[in-house]
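Bug #2210: token dump truncated for AraC family transcriptional regulator?
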Amino acid sequence: MFEFTYRSEGHYDGEFHSHTFYELYYFHEGKCNYLIGDQIYNLSPGDLILMYGMTLHRPKVDPSAPYIRTIIHFDPAMLRPYSDVPNGIPILQPYERFRNYRLSLRGGDKEEFENLLLTMRKHQERGTPVGDGRLMLAFVDALHFIYEKCLEPLNEKREFPSDKERAVQDVIALLEHRYTDEELNMERLQKELHLSKSYLAKIFKEVTGVTIFDYVYRKRVNEAKVLFLLHPDISVTEVSFRLGFKHLAHFSRLFKQQAGETPEKYKKRLADRRSSDGKENRL
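Reproduced locally. Full output below:
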């Protein structure tokens, strides 16, 4: 699959999500914090984010300013022919090595990359097989540009614009390790982070746009989807307890709210898809 959305406008109010394809996100304009796993990126125009996909992510957009971004979703398998050639450049290596990574493009680099995106858009607008082919070649060129920039030393120290965002980073880092703990609560967070419950709740919602436990539950449901995908024989009950839910009914209710179907139906749909794929492969 390949999806190219050039200079998309309008505000995004979506939830934390993940997917099995890679993503390239370029920030043109606006005010936005981007949350990827346990990292918070305070974006500036020219910031380019590589996303591995499966890590839970979500933009937190300030609606007071225009929000303009370019997004590319792609299946890495479709790009292997461009790198698996004699003396080919491993253009997917930045995704494979860093998983999720930000490049801050400025000056001439910013102008060059935006010109690459504009070239892609012009080919896309042609709507012809030749245009589609040249669109893909332009995208491969953009990935070569990214690869070259990722060869530079990665010793730049990340700075947070405020103590508030640094504190939220600490909360997310802790949650990344404790989100399956069934005894996780605000009192425990308060004790470990040495900040009051009310302050933690307030700043987390301000920076991320969701509550602490909305974040935890979405991360648990996302992990449940991964477990169902990777372990077809695992039971719903085992997944529920493994992810820190004390009651199966609570897990099932949250899963349906976020996935649009019960965990049992989700498992069945995965099984049906595997069966269908198996039949196609035997034809």
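Output looks complete on our side. Residues 129-150 form the longest helix (22 residues). Marking as cannot-reproduce; reopen if the truncation happens again.
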